């Protein structure tokens, strides 16, 4: 059985997933992040995988801190 993959982004419209362009999907993501930022620095949190590279975890924490203005990030590196 061949793997089925999405070839176009899907966005939720009236509780239904509909195909969208990449620009539409990214605009929706950006609007969602902006809406969260308006609620304050504690409204956003991020989990990053401890099995990711240090570079990936660094990029995730920089995004959370610099872009979203939040120190709420956990990469589970304690294990």
Defining key terms:
two-stranded antiparallel sheet; alpha+beta; two-stranded parallel sheet; 79 residues; 2 domains; globular
Short description:
With 79 residues, this protein is α+β, with helices and mostly antiparallel strands. The protein is built from two helices and four strands, in the order E-E-H-E-H-E. The protein has two domains: 9-38, no CATH class; 43-79, no CATH class.
Question: What features would you describe in this structure?
Answer:
By secondary structure, this protein is of the alpha+beta class. It has two domains: 30 residues, no CATH class; 37 residues, no CATH class. The protein is built from two helices and four strands. β1 and β2 form a beta hairpin.
Question: What is the ordering of alpha helices and beta strands?
Answer: EEHEHE
> Domains counted in the coordinates: how many?
2
CA-CA gap between termini: 37 Å
Principal-axis shape equals globular
Please tell me how large the radius of gyration is.
Answer: 16 Å
Largest sheet: 2 strands, antiparallel
- Name the structural class: alpha+beta
Q: Low-confidence parts lasting 5 or more residues at pLDDT below 50?
A: none
**Helical fraction:** 25-40%
Q: Helix count, per DSSP?
A: 2
Strand content of the residues, in percent? 15-25%
With strands numbered from the N-terminus, the spatial order across the biggest sheet is 1-2
**Mean pLDDT over the full residue set:** 87
Number of strands: 4
């Amino acid at each position: 059985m061949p793997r089925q993959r999405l070839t176009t982004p899907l966005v939720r419209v009236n509780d239904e997933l509909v195909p969208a362009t990449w620009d539409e999907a990214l605009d929706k993501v950006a609007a969602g992040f902006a809406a969260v930022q308006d609620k304050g620095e504690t409204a956003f949190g991020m989990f990053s995988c401890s099995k990711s590279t240090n570079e990936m975890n660094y990029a995730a924490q920089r995004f959370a801190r610099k872009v979203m203005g939040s120190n709420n990030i956990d990469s589970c590196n304690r294990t």
